[in-house]
Design brief:
Elements lengths: L1 H28 L35 H10 L3 H4 L2 H24 L4 H13 L4 H4 L5 H19 L4 H15 L6 H11 L5 H24 L14 H16 L4 H5 L6 H20 L8 H19 L8 H16 L5 H44 L5 E7 L13 H4 L4 H6 L7 E7 L5 H14 L5 E6 L2 E6 L1
Parallel strand pairs: 1-2, 1-3
Antiparallel strand pairs: 3-4
Helix pairs in contact: 1-4, 1-5, 4-5, 4-7, 5-15, 7-8, 7-9, 9-10, 9-14, 13-16, 14-15
Length: about 475
């Protein structure tokens, strides 16, 4: 019995460690409050009846019914459930992704040491933090989890794979649209690792295209009014910029805040974080560069490009890195699995990588917590100065040139969420209506905002004016 326990520890030590670390991760992100897009997502409290078309069919820019179901759930008791349920689902989803990837690495034929090291890499790498710390990223983690499970059915259940594979791909796509890309990824990755032959590859790529066409037809027949947001329109320069951001966030481990966020910039600490992570990344990528001529490696690279293509062609942020990290993990696994020399050096470099990754993760989470607290403080200030419930509010935002970085370091007015943070503080009792506008920052911007507010009040269109100047809130009442 004792030997079997030791065998389990040796074979699954990364999963055991991750089970122990996951509650700590959940506790760390538990205090992160909504900011910016979190306030506008369909995972925010929703008070409409459950059986409406928005909860089941194409809505807005997306068809993500699971997001709207979460919104309905937290809307039953926003003060208690939001964003607690969101954090719980994200961390649980990240854990499930890790377990599914662990199983995929087994199926791909890597040895136990490689599987454990690679799995821990995926769980802890700072590139996941923009997803793990976000409140509206359940769609991202569960799309990947479902796609990884779809791959396992694809390669392990040959008799029924043409039933379960399309169903799971469609399910992943209902979490997030990039889940559809695994209709092509599954056969390419399986072929790369010799799990299917070339003839099956060609046939299943056609099946994959059929899955994509079927999904497109389902979208086409639904009643909807689609307006493409300018942010999602592709362009050559935009695509190039997205590729650069993708390569930086995916392949370089560094403390992004110390490097990129001007008010928080500490280049020495950024350099130290990069140097701690560099040996491991150098050994598995640069030193093993010749591996990219191998079929397993370049097929995985193709899968990586397919996975992130929807984001590269439209909009890319640090959160979208998550879609490609499974393939970077597989590349690292392949590199480690073929490593013959300097095993102790590789292990030492990985330990250094883990140390700096944890330090960066803590910094990113702490910064996210502070950004959310700013929005909460502004909301409470607005409510206190308003004094009594108001039915309608006109929100004037003085444009803020304060630097931001992803969801970690957010501009104060974005943390305030166009006034929605104040609605949350009143448990969505008031104001019923918030109309916002933004004016340019200038030496007399506050005077202009005040004049605009007084003019609006004189027209009796709104009951109250809120003026947002960085973290400060001015209130004008009748």
């Amino acid at each position: 019995m004792q030997n079997s326990h030791r065998q389990i520890m040796r074979d699954y030590w990364s999963i055991i460690l991750i089970i122990l670390l996951s509650p700590l991760l959940l506790y760390a992100v538990w205090f992160i409050l909504p900011t910016h897009d979190d306030w506008a997502a369909t995972t925010t409290p929703d008070f409409t009846p459950f059986f409406t078309k928005e909860h089941f069919f194409f809505y807005g820019y997306h068809w993500r019914p699971f997001d709207t179901w979460i919104g309905y759930l937290v809307g039953r008791n926003p003060q208690l459930l939001f964003p607690a349920i969101n954090h719980l689902l994200v961390v649980l989803g990240h854990f499930l992704s890790v377990v599914a990837l662990f199983k995929v690495l087994i199926v791909l034929g890597f040895n136990k040491k490689t599987i454990n090291v690679s799995t821990l890499f995926f769980f802890i790498i700072p590139a996941t933090m923009a997803t793990v710390t976000a409140i509206d990223s359940q769609n991202q983690v569960y799309a990947l989890t479902t796609d990884l499970i779809a791959f396992l059915f694809y390669v392990k259940n040959s008799k029924n794979k043409y039933i379960f594979w399309p169903i799971l791909i469609f399910l992943a796509t209902l979490f997030k649209e990039n889940g559809l890309m695994w209709a092509l990824i599954c056969p390419v990755l399986a072929y790369g690792f010799d799990l299917i032959d070339k003839k099956t590859l060609k046939k299943d790529l056609l099946v994959g295209l059929g899955i994509m066409i079927a999904y497109a037809l389902m979208i086409a027949i639904q009643p909807k009014d689609i307006t493409i947001h300018p942010e999602y329109e592709p362009g050559v320069l935009k695509i190039i910029k997205n590729i650069v951001k993708f390569l930086f966030t995916s392949l370089i481990t560094v403390d992004y805040i110390y490097l990129l966020h001007q008010p928080s910039r500490k280049l020495l600490l950024a350099i130290v974080s990069f140097l701690f992570a560099l040996p491991f990344l150098y050994l598995v990528f640069i030193r093993q560069w010749h591996l990219f001529s191998h079929k397993k490696m370049w097929c995985t690279a193709i899968c990586l490009l397919i996975a992130v293509a929807p984001h590269l062609l439209t909009t890319f942020s640090m959160m979208h890195t998550y879609a490609g990290l499974a393939f970077i993990t597989i590349m690292i696994a392949y590199s480690i699995n073929t490593y013959k020399e300097q095993q102790k050096t590789l292990i030492l470099s990985f330990v250094l990588f883990l140390i700096v990754s944890v330090a960066i993760d803590i910094h990113l989470i702490d910064s996210s917590v502070k950004s959310g607290r700013i929005g909460k403080q502004m909301a409470r200030e607005a409510i206190q100065k308003t004094g009594k419930p108001m039915k309608s509010v006109y929100l004037i935002i003085i444009e803020d040139d304060y630097p931001k970085l992803s969801s970690f370091c957010v501009i104060p007015n974005e943390a305030f969420g166009w006034g929605i943070a104040a609605k949350y503080e009143t448990n969505y009792q008031w104001p019923e209506v918030i109309q916002d506008t933004t004016i340019e920052r200038s030496a007399d911007a506050l005077r202009k905002a005040t004049n605009l507010g007084l003019e609006t009040l004189n027209k009796q269109q709104y009951d109250c004016i809120w003026i947002v100047d960085h973290e400060h809130i001015d209130v004008i009442k009748r």
